[in-house]
Amino acid sequence: MNKIVFATNNENKLREAREILAPLGIEVISQREAGADCEPEENGVTFAENAMIKAKAVYDIVKCPVIADDSGLCVDVLGGRPGVYSARYAPKGEECGKLLAEMQDVPEENRGAAFECVIAYVDGENEFTVNGSCHGSIGFEERGKNGFGYDPIFMCGGRTMAEMDSEEKNKLSHRGAALRELFKRLEKKGE
Ligand code: IMP
Fold this sequence. Notes:
By secondary structure, this protein is of the alpha/beta class. Helices cover 31% and strands 25% of the residues.
């Protein structure tokens, strides 16, 4: 099994990456397990820039293949906000309530949104990014207990992502799409 270090301190992202990559034969090691105790400043203005910042910071410590995820929720009627600032939009646990309040007068037909994910890969010889998106809409209330972040208000196929089990979420999600794309790129590289 190939091993890859995931440059994250986010336990939810780590769990999802393990669930998605283990069946593809890739073992995901957390940056903490790899001994990389760092939290680089995410001062890029795009998902790709921030993902690369995180991957390179951890690669500089561990010197073996590293991936990083930068992701967020882009709401059409808000011009793509909170986007790259999704983690900083509100204190943890308050993001759904704040977004619902900001969108309280927005009718159903204008509530389109997408989760975006960029995965950066760095191994000392190669560095690249891959993307994944999941299109849906913002609901009118929080529903479901699974997942994290904006999952309770992100509707996809009639349910919120927090109402899905992780297998269903991973099939549809931006992170699932990006990590499967990563796997394809790594397979090509190994040919
Ligand atoms: P960052 O990539 O560490 O900057 O943080 C991304 C932020 O976007 C997270 O803190 C969540 O609020 C949100 N986010 C990213 N992916 C997901 C997801 O799969 N579900 C719900 N929220 C997400």
